[in-house]
Amino acid sequence: MTEGAEGMELLDELGLGGSSLTAEEPFRSFLAGLGPGAVPEMERYGAELAARHNGLADDALCTLALAVLDGCGPPEGRSGLRADLASRAAADSGPESGEAAERRAAVWRALGDLLAREEGAPGEGPEPFSRLARAMADGRRTPEAERFELLQVLHRAAHSRSQQT
Questions:
Q1: In angstroms, rounded to a whole number, what is the distance separating the alpha carbons of residues 99 and 85?
Q2: Helix, strand, or coil here: 24?
Q3: Which letter, b or e, does each residue of 127-144 get, where b requires 16 or more Cβ atoms within 10 Å of its Cβ?
Q4: Whose CA, among 3, 44, 88, 143, lies 20 to 30 Å from 151?
């Protein structure tokens, strides 16, 4: 059985096999290459979805962080970018902040953790994808939320494959 077929079988088992999203990119590629090698791109896509879902996609800092994760921009600016992301996360979190601000802070932290991991530095706290799941957990049924739900299934499957090898 091919990896793509295994991915489709997994989606059927989880009740997501009828999703038309599986035929769209990037899901088609994720299914075709389902395994640990797909995890970084899944997490980057999850960050993009969380940013859109939480109204951050047009923020210049968010756009820059996503571009850097795509390999654009000078490597020497990454530590400064991580500091800016941490600062933005701190500004959105705290005892006076509401749930929406906490979800935005989770996106900023996840972006910083993804950049840190690319540099070989350890992240702080939960895994980036866990932060992204928190950022998406507001109960709204947006197109991004539907895509993230499918992405979570694929992310879990890719991680389980990395533990099997």
A1: 19
A2: coil
A3: ebbebbbbbbeeeeeeeb
A4: 88
Taking only the tens place, the pLDDT of each residue in 70-120 is 998 777 778 899 999 999 999 988 777 799 999 999 999 999 999 999 888
Domain count, the chain: 1
Can you give the residue range of the structural domain that contains 36?
3-164
The angle at the Cα of 165, spanning 163 to 17, to the nearest 5 degrees, equals: 65
Alpha helix segments (H runs only) across 14-98: 27-32, 39-53, 60-69, 78-92
Q: pTM to 2 decimals?
A: 0.88
* 36-57 pLDDT tens trace: 999 999 999 999 999 999 999 9
d(C-alpha 127, C-alpha 23), whole Å: 28
* Rounded (5°) CA angle 146-126-63: 55
